[in-house]
Amino acid sequence: MLSIIQDLGKILSYKQKIHLIFIFLSAFIMSALDMIGVGSLVGFIAVISTPEVVIELIPIEALKFFLLDLDQKTLVIYSAILIISVFLIKNLIFLILYYVEAKIKKNLNVDFSKRIFATFLKRPYIFHTLTSPVSSINTILPVTNRAILYIFSSLTFFREGLTIFFLMGTLIFIDIKTYSIIFILFLIISFLFNFFSKKKADYYGGKTNFAEEKTLGHLNKAFSYIKLIKLFNTNDFWVKKFFNEKNRLHEYQTISYLLSRIPKIILEIAGVSIVVFIFIFFIVVDNKNIEEIIPFLTLIVLIVVRCLPAFTNLNQSLNSINYTNKSINRILEILTDKTFDQDDPKYISKKKILQLEKIEVKNLSFSYNEDYKILEDVSFDIFKGQIIGINGTTGSGKSTLVDLILGLLKPNKGQILLNGEELNKKSYENINIGYVPQDTYISDDTIEENIGFNINKKDIDPTKIKEAIKSSNLDDFINNLPEKVNTYIGEDGVRISGGQKQRIGLARALYDDPNLLILDEATSALDNETEASIINEITKLKKDKIIIMIAHRLNTLKNCDKIITVKDKKIYLDIKK
Ligand SMILES: Nc1ncnc2c1ncn2[C@@H]1O[C@H](COP(=O)(O)OP(=O)(O)OP(=O)(O)O)[C@@H](O)[C@H]1O
Ligand SMILES: [Mg+2]
What we know:
Elements: H1 2-11, H2 14-49, H3 51-56, H4 61-69, H5 72-122, H6 125-130, H7 133-174, H8 176-224, H9 226-232, H10 235-285, H11 294-336, E1 358-369, E2 372-383, E3 387-392, H12 398-405, E4 413-418, E5 421-422, E6 433-436, H13 447-451, H14 462-471, H15 475-479, H16 498-510, E7 516-520, H17 528-540, E8 546-550, E9 562-567, E10 570-575
Parallel strand pairs: 3-8, 3-9, 6-7, 7-8
Antiparallel strand pairs: 1-2, 1-4, 4-5, 9-10
Magnesium ion binds at residues 398-399, 438, 520.
């Protein structure tokens, strides 16, 4: 708990800390208002039953005489108006405080999710090849929700603890024996309950995170495999598996829910039994009449109305704290990790474009893991105005080589130089890159938004779109669509053909007139004629660019100035012109 508070201290802004302190204090205001509410109700009952006694207690003489002059009925009406006003004002304040609290909670949640998302995006590419996107999404959404719950439960815990402490102080002062017994009994119940449930809540909290990830992952998989599921008619298999995952998740949540409810049940039974017992004691054993025990009645109401919920909340928040413990730890671990904070490159929308004159690869070695080397001691140069072909068998390391040139992966040995300078995180800040990955992703947006995917719709330049469409041979296809570039093409381009998808990927890469254009099997799905025409278009653009083209088919690479063949961790150069 202490380390969590310390970590929170590190990641919360000054404003956020003030907000949390405000919530903590506002709860005391609520508590006090609750007390005033209960007190005024008791007062109202007293005015109805024994008005003279109540009026005698008023310290202001003038008011006292004024009230004594009134008849019983008017007095009751006055006190009724008073009590309704008290409750109106009290609840109005409550409403304002609830609003502020909800706002603070929302802001904190959104801020945390945003920061975690930003942190994930900042992490190196290799991290994302090792972590499933679903796991990251799960952390950004539900796990963050639970981490926020932890913070608010902790506030509730301390607040209720303090309330109980003060109540205990006041009540013990009035009747030490009765109330010490009640408080000690409540404390023992709470302690015992927490003792037995702590481990379980923590355990099921961790399980919930895991099960939620599995459920999300299952849905993600199912929709990605939709074609195969339809083909093999395996709906039932997938639905059943989903049911099992979701059911497991809710079983954990049910247990946690039950754990959080049990203290209320035990405490209520104990509380009511105690109250009834005290009544019986005073009336039957001690033979007191009702009027005599009115002060006790007030205190008993206080116990039922204030102490019981305080103890219930205390236990519930403690259970929540245990349940969300793993979530807050995961979030704090991510937010306090500063490993990837330095040299975070900035996206500059109006960048000063630098020409890319030369890429040098010197004695480069790379492996994803120690056991298996992908490239060993590889060297070559690429110059502006050249098209470089990369060829090689599947799995030989072509895409890996490109990832290294792009700085997505770090070499184990050797160097990559851009314009004579060693590749670093900022190298590409002022260079336009056009990249068609081997598995081009198409989002469920319009063609136009897919081509200008990194910018807001309103900032997309129609002239650039037109150029990109022309160079990637998409004119005919788009002209035949009813909504032209504003046609929606479905998640991962399900409503277009494989070749159209590739060409949209190509148009996306060409949109910003890149200095470095990388095509990883970008034309593999096209017929020879379309491919040849696109490659001719691209060749026309090569003057002020470096173009790297990966292809299995040598025919695709026929316009290249240099062909690099990757084979057995080495490269073989074939200079054509
Ligand atoms: N993230 C990764 N972690 C571990 N190994 C990887 C990773 N990505 C690729 N590999 C391995 O590295 C080798 C080279 O992969 P790469 O994708 O560069 O091949 P490629 O030449 O582009 O193949 P293809 O022609 O099929 O696209 C492969 O054996 C592959 O299994
Ligand atoms: Mg590849």
